[in-house]
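Researcher: I'd like a structural prediction for the single chain below. Treat it as a standalone chain; there are no partners to consider.
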Amino acid sequence: MAVFLSTYVNKVDRKGRVSVPAEFRKVLAGQSYQGVVVHKSLHYSALEGCSAEHMEQLSDSLETSDLSNEDYELIETTIFGGSIQLPFDGEGRIVLPQHFCEFAGITEEAAFVGRRKTFQIWEPGALAAHESGMRDKARSRDISLSKIIAKASAMRGAAS
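Model: Treating it as a single chain, here is the predicted structure.
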């Protein structure tokens, strides 16, 4: 499965239309729904986006999870109840609802940030501040990609 990578900043017009990056549309190509599913982030002043198939996978995962009733209710209400399917127009744009733009502080530009199987949509200035904070945390925790890969390789080797 292809993954969402990189960060793109696109203009938002007066009607809330914004182009989904071509690379993101390529990841979404071949899906049954020609558009994206978007909801408000639970943790940030940003929007979360994914394919309809990813939402189906999340739904299936909830059926076999051992979440508390309260957590199950939280996810169903905030994620599933708060999601909207946004179709692509002929130019690869979506229309962000006004209340979503207000939640994320998006006005003239939107930053699309790849997060493997999902992506986020931020107001560019807020994203810059968030990214700076994440880099500081990564340094303070001595997070390194080579360490992550080595640990995963060791775990796979132990499982064999």
